[in-house]
Predict the 3D structure of the following.
Amino acid sequence: MENASKALIMGSSVLLGVMILSIGVYIFSTFAQYSENAYQRLDDAQIAQFNNQFLQYYGNVNSTYIDEQTGKEKTVSEPIKCTVHDIITIANLAQQSNTQYNLSGLDGYDESTFYVQVDVVDKTNKQNSATKLEKWDEKTKISFITEHSSEDYKCADIKISSATKRVCYVKFEKINK
């Protein structure tokens, strides 16, 4: 009888040990998953913050006015107007990002990298079009600002990389008045 009671005590202690180990593994995996989710949310927030710097110029704005002839309210959708200063700000952000990731040596955007490219297109005069503003030096940027300070632009296209989920290309077009 004495051996049977010792065997039961040993069996229960082994069972208790296995239960404690199982609880430990469960808690460890739960905290690991929580940590992974927290890092993912942090990465998503950083990507959203980066993209919002570019996306704030993209899209349309609705304005409402009352038509004097009919007396009815009308809504007009217009693209968000950008100045040449906004474009240079975007080019500087792209240049800063490209430098941060040591991508200044690349020739253009590629969806598999963090490289950001900025172009300006003038459909009426192709010679006024400018590409790869993120590669320009300060003197060229100042010259561009001086020559085009009175013109309005719109953000015509933004590409977001499917691999990195970050903005990789921004295209501005001159708004014809």
User: Anything to note?
Assistant: Strands lie at 60-66, 73-79, 81-82, 117-121, 153-160, 167-174. Helices lie at 2-55, 84-100, 138-148.
